[in-house]
């Protein structure tokens, strides 16, 4: 039996009101000069003040950095790192969605390294991280990315995405407070929620799955599937928001340890070439990728169907796997995400360039239970454009 490598962040506070642990954790880390990296929209609506005000009341020096954009390009990462290097900070706090948290991780680690961010990219970089960097506390305000518990920072390149990845990017403290998510608008709630579900689904069928990641993934799917629709429709619902926060957190732990695969590999070029939000990129592709690889993991897809609230008891594994794909399609549609690439304005002429870029995501593709070659990837993109589930040999 293969030995699984299981890694969790050092410390997490999870639950309604968890933000109360922020000041004690800052004290424990011995910080004085704090850099808060956050989304400008969160600063505008006053949400960031829930983080900064208690710190300033305790006498901490706090600088709020808001040069953050969705799907941050490499240049944005370079600017954040340069700012952290120049500021003589001793703690970085990330507040926001995945983009803000990824930039906070990047800035905290590379603040103590030489060279550019590009030097450390997974696909093309030539330098290795050698030091842990500044302590970091990560506080998500969406339920989706799982960035608060992973060791990856994602950056957009000209036509695709790449990552800086190392255990040094893990948070010293993650604070997951669902109360911070109640103001997230429905479209973002839907996209980030399906993103979290994708993390759990892909972790469960990953070739690197283990009993530990399986338990996390199944629990995440149950929480998300029972609460996402309500969180989108009634954003103030405390139970729905709590379930989504817990589900996203568990899904993050699951995919950090088992990895994601084909959905993410094909989603990266959508973000790189057309600047589609990561969660929506995953959402539109999820049923098509899972439908294509279905034959390689029918038992696991039957399990997923049950976790999504279905019942495979009176179905064969094959029948349950088909029903699983249908349930994924239904959930994506119910939360209002377009079901085809054309729904996002992507022309058929782009499928070739999308395929060429997706093929390069070998780190992700290696985890797929069905090897996805260039022809397979092209077939999936064509299916997502046409709105029809296809399988190998039946294109």
Question: How is the topology of this model organized?
Answer:
Blueprint: E1 12-14, H1 22-29, E2 33-38, H2 40-44, H3 49-57, E3 61-65, H4 74-86, E4 91-96, H5 98-110, E5 136-140, E6 152-156, E7 161-165, E8 173-176, H6 186-205, H7 211-233, H8 238-258, H9 262-274, H10 278-293, H11 298-307, H12 317-334, H13 351-359, H14 362-365, H15 374-386
Parallel strand pairs: 1-8, 2-3, 2-4, 4-5, 5-8
Antiparallel strand pairs: 6-7
- Low-pLDDT segments, ≥5 res: none
The total count of strands amounts to: 8
Largest sheet: 6 strands, parallel
Taken in chain order, the helices and strands follow as: EHEHHEHEHEEEEHHHHHHHHHH
Tell me the span between the first and last alpha carbons.
36 Å
Helix and strand composition category? alpha/beta
Strand order of the largest sheet: 1-8-5-4-2-3
Helical stretch count?
15
What is the overall pLDDT average? 95
Q: What is Rg?
A: 20 Å
Task: Give the fraction of residues assigned to helices.
Answer: 40-55%
**Share in β-strands:** 5-15%
Overall geometry: globular
Keywords: NAD, Oxidoreductase
Family: Belongs to the iron-containing alcohol dehydrogenase family.
Domain Alcohol dehydrogenase iron-type/glycerol dehydrogenase GldA: 13-178
Protein name: Alcohol dehydrogenase
């Amino acid at each position: 039996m293969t030995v699984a490598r299981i890694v969790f962040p050092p410390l997490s506070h999870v639950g309604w009101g968890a933000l109360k642990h922020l000041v004690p954790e800052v004290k424990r880390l011995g910080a004085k000069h704090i850099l808060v990296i956050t989304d400008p929209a969160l600063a505008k609506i006053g949400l960031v003040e829930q983080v900064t005000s208690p710190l300033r009341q305790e006498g901490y020096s706090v600088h709020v950095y808001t040069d953050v954009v969705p799907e941050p390009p490499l240049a944005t990462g370079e600017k954040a790192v340069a700012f952290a290097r120049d500021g003589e900070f001793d703690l970085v706090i990330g507040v926001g969605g995945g983009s803000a948290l990824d930039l906070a991780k990047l800035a905290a680690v590379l603040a103590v390294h030489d060279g550019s961010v590009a030097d450390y990219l997974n696909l093309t970089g030539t330098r290795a991280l050698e030091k842990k960097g500044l302590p970091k506390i990560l506080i998500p305000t969406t339920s989706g990315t799982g960035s608060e518990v992973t060791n990856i920072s994602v950056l957009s390149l000209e036509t695709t995405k790449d990552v800086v990845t190392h255990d040094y990017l893990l948070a010293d403290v993650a604070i997951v407070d669902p109360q911070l998510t109640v103001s997230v608008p429905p479209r973002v709630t839907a996209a980030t929620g399906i993103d979290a579900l994708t993390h759990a689904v892909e972790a469960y069928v990953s070739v690197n799955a283990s009993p530990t990641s399986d338990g996390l993934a199944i629990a995440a799917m149950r929480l998300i599937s029972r609460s996402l629709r309500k969180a989108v429709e009634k954003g103030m619902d405390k139970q729905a928001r709590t379930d989504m926060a817990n589900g996203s957190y568990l899904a993050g732990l699951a995919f950090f340890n088992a990895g994601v695969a084909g959905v993410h590999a094909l989603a990266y070029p959508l973000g790189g070439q057309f600047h589609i939000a990561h969660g929506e990129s995953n959402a539109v592709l999820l049923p098509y990728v899972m439908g294509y690889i279905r034959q390689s993991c029918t038992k696991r897809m039957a399990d997923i169907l049950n976790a999504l609230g279905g019942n495979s008891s009176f179905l064969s594994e094959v029948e349950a796997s088909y029903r699983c794909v249908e349930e994924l399609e239904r959930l994506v549609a119910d939360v209002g995400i377009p079901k085809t690439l054309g729904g996002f304005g992507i022309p058929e002429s782009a499928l070739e360039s999308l395929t060429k870029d997706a093929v390069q995501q070998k780190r992700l593709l290696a985890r797929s239970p069905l090897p996805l070659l260039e022809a397979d990837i092209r077939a999936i993109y064509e299916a997502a454009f046409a709105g029809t589930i296809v399988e190998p040999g039946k294109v």
